Amino acid sequence: MKDINIMIVGVGGQGSLLASKLLGKIFAENGYDVKVSEVHGMSQRGGSVVTYVRCGDKVYSPIVAKGEADFIVSFEKLEAARYTECLKKGGRIVVNSQQIDPMPVITGAAEYPENVLDELREKGVSVDEIDALSLALEAGSAKCVNIVLMGRLSDYFDFSEKQWLDAIEDTVAPKFVEMNKKAFALGRG
Fold first, then answer.
1. Which of 19-23, 98-102, 153-157 bottoms out in mean pLDDT, i.e. has the lowest?
2. CATH number of the domain to which 165 belongs
3. What is the pTM for the complete model shown?
4. Residue 140 CA, distance from chain mean position
């Protein structure tokens, strides 16, 4: 069983913990040893956050070292660029095309870099860009961006759609299950 290292990066309050819990559940149900990290960063204040999901035959640490991430799932463009050094050669970034201005941009101390994703592509980074916010709104709520991104990430694994939908039922509050299933379906390729 091949080791798989996934980083989920974004801004506090976007649902990275739910996404990592969903990934942990689906991998564990498919026989992987799974380690999921806690959120690192200023999650309560809209700051940069990162969670890690590592799985394989036997995993000892939840932390993904620089240059070891098979996938980076980014809830925002600048966060994708911030963590690119963690991606392994041949890895892929699944990124929401949304721009969320960090505090230095909001205060006028810095400018949001233009063409962030194009610059990554020019450097040879494999970028799978999706307008997850629009799809989440189509599903019923902007809060479903995380599940739209999980739908897109699911395209890279051989787990059945039913397994993913069952994992959503097990991890999402019952009153939000149908909306999140729709968000997942919209994210899948």
1. 98-102
2. 3.40.920.10
3. 0.92
4. 19
